[in-house]
Specification:
Order of helices and strands: EEHEEEEEEEEEEEHHEEE
Largest sheet: 7 strands, antiparallel
Number of strands: 16
Radius of gyration: 22 Å
Shape: elongated
Strand order of the largest sheet: 3-4-5-6-7-8-9
Helix content: under 10%
Structural class: mainly beta
Strand content: 35-45%
Number of helices: 3
Distance between the termini: 41 Å
Length: 295
């Protein structure tokens, strides 16, 4: 599967936009229909077929340990007509992930099916490795998130004399700080691979924590739990979302002087239709980031 990341030319807003899985030469990929049949030999699947299995819809999710958004979770679910268990451990910054996926056998025991390791979740790429327990070769994929143009609606910057000003000047510049000013709206659509709960969580955290100020926004993971749940269950195959971006700036002593941005707030609203009328449970999600010393 390939991902593309979009950003408008005037504002580096981020986007994950994967396309459908690529077929490797000589591979025998399986379809959602075929893996649902009882005669599929799961023990003999190659690693790319396993990747496709991992993307199938998941039902009856039941947590044994932790919950959506937690770094360490364990849960069971049904998919492709079988019962599964996942044990997942994410790094504290959500940029690395180790997952163990177990398949329940005829005796009712869970046997290790594959491991999935995810590294370098960043603004440019994600590295994913599936390692089958059956001895088949590992499948390594680098998810590309190269910047491309995106749809945007830039609002006119308010002249200084019309800006509402916060009076406090106890900051590194010694100048007053403006109130939040609506900078623009950015419109995206995305399709996130639904390998596991933690994979989707880490991707969404990365998506909504991006900041043009060059520092990561603070994301309260509890705010995305409902959204992640909807994505993982595959009730919504595609997502459309809108970013509303606001800035606070220093207010210089004279009109026309440079107004440095010192804070950024972004409100992400997700929809299940291109007309953006069907609001997805779990949004909007708001992130906020400040330059050091200005809050």
């Amino acid at each position: 599967m390939r991902y593309k990341k979009f950003a408008c030319a005037v504002f580096a807003a981020s986007l994950l936009l994967p396309t459908s899985s690529q077929v490797l030469a000589g591979s025998d990929p399986i379809s959602s229909q075929s893996v649902s049949q009882d005669n599929v030999d799961f023990s003999n699947l190659d690693s790319q077929s396993i990747e496709e299995v991992m993307e199938l819809p998941k039902d009856n999710i039941s947590f044994i340990k932790g919950n959506y958004g937690d770094l360490n979770i364990e849960y069971t679910y049904t998919s492709a007509g079988r019962e599964w268990k996942a044990v997942e451990n994410s790094s504290a910054d959500y940029k690395e992930l180790h997952s163990e996926i177990y398949l329940r056998n005829d005796n009712g025991d869970y046997e290790l099916f594959t491991t999935m390791d995810v590294d370098n979740i960043s603004a440019t790429k994600i590295d994913v490795t599936f390692t089958p327990e059956n001895g088949k070769a590992s499948y390594n994929e680098t998810i590309d998130m190269t910047f491309q143009p995106a749809s945007a609606e830039i609002l006119d910057n308010q002249p200084q004399e019309r800006m509402s000003i916060t009076a406090a000047t106890d900051n590194p510049s010694g100048l007053p700080i403006s109130d939040w000013n609506h900078y623009g709206n950015f419109f995206h659509n995305t399709k996130v691979a639904k390998y596991t709960i933690s994979f989707v969580t880490n991707i969404v955290v990365g998506l909504v924590s991006y900041s043009t100020l060059g520092i990561g926004g603070v994301v309260v993971t509890s705010a995305i739990t409902n959204l992640v749940g909807e994505i993982v269950k595959d009730n919504i195959p595609d997502l459309w979302y809108t970013e509303k971006v606001y800035y606070k700036t220093v207010v210089p002593p004279e009109p026309g002087m440079f107004r440095m941005k010192v804070a950024e707030k972004t409100i992400y609203t997700f929809y299940s239709d291109s007309a953006r009328t069907k609001h997805v449970k779990g949004s909007p999600i708001t992130t906020e980031v400040w330059l050091r010393g200005y809050k």
